[in-house]
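Mods, move this if it's the wrong board.
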Amino acid sequence: MSMLTTRSSSVRTPTTSDQTADPVVRVEGLRKSYGSKLAVDGVSFTVDRGEILGILGPNGAGKTTTVESLAGLRTSDEGTVSVLGLDPSQDPAPLREVLGVQLQESRLPAKLRVVEALRLYASFYADPRDPEELIDLLDLREKRDTAYENLSGGQKQRLSIALALVGNPQLAILDELTTGLDPQARRETWDLIEAVRDSGVTILLVTHFMDEAARLCDRVLVIDQGRVVAEGTPAELARAGRAGITFRLQLADPIDATMLTELPSVDSVREVGGVLEISGGRTVLPDVIIALHSRGLVPEDVQTITPSLEDAFVELVGRPSEEEAA
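Not the wrong board. Structure tokens:
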């Protein structure tokens, strides 16, 4: 598998301090085994200050083991991990003061109220954020005195994010943030994450939702079988995920597809919902239009198909994400 390692700027414009600061996270040659199973195999990457870095990969790829090693919840077998200059295995106490973690599965006591949970977690830190401020930031004001068991799935996720932020961290690790949420709750959560980043928190986001990564992430890593197989912005990976050009055109009358498949720039022609979908090299679109025009045929409609992050993911790991497979 080829690796895309471009690190061009993302949609977010970095400030001068972003560009000159050391990375918030630096991982080099991380390896972790469970018995005979090699879960993480030489993973290396950085997270720059003020960005959202997404980690994508199929189930069992090593994503969660990687971020748990950053959080000090796992001890790596080999490699180095630095979070704001701290070694998670050697500096657990100071690390807790600068790192917030929202794990894939977390539960609170059923009767614990929202404000009580935030005050309890705030008591663990030397310089916590104001729980009331977080209640407003995460849109939990109406649920301030509601017991955990009576919160909806989206509200529980918002509370989970608030608890990850209550220590006033510089870095937040969010693992499978919106799994199980309905589409509206997912999009509301995305808005909150962007607000959190805008407040100055660097974010490491583990997800299997391609639309989530494309919406939120400045850069993404794709991990498969414990290794980084691609890295870049969502747009860069999407462009790399499908070679050439694909477009659909609609004609007034059916044609013999052979007249198109014989063109050197055409790789494939297939019918999709009554229109022709054509893929090929860089000049395939003008070549097809010219060939049709030479026979007196003018398309009624032409639509190019923009490659997606999902396309890149499938090409890199050989199978769709859990979301697409479901």
